[in-house]
Amino acid sequence: MSGGSNETPRNPREEVGRTDDTGLVKRLLIENYGYAPDLVYEIRGRYHKVYAWKPCTLEIKGPDRQGVYFARIESDGIRLSIEGSFLVGPRATKNVVELDDERARRYLAGESVEIDENLYGWVIVKWRNYFLGSAKAKEGRLINYVPGDRRLRLDL
Hints:
By secondary structure, the chain is of the alpha+beta class. The chain has helices at residues 21-33, 82-88, 101-108; strands spanning 40-44, 49-53, 68-74, 77-80, 96-98, 113-114, 121-127, 130-138, 141-143.
């Protein structure tokens, strides 16, 4: 089959193991957010979790694996962890959604919230000067991905 404009978008998960992890993650970050930190990236496990770290000459004995949980490769792009949004967000040039106080509060409590922007796909969520993680923008809403154990309890 020849390529053309009717091609379906590629699934980045299909590239895992076939290409350099750092190269793949940097490409996805640039495509989606316009910026990729200069880090080493490693994709691990069947859930395609991305761990990131800065190379260091200091030898430290400890776990065999390095890095902080940074993101996850999804079938339609890259979903940043809360820590990943802190590293990418300040220099991201696209797909950053800013929330007002009320929507940020609801978002951190685990709710999906409405947005005015007409976006689709993975976005960085920002409130004031803080980066809150990432969400999936779809049909005028941010679908919440804040892990249950990191959500705020709202006493309503």
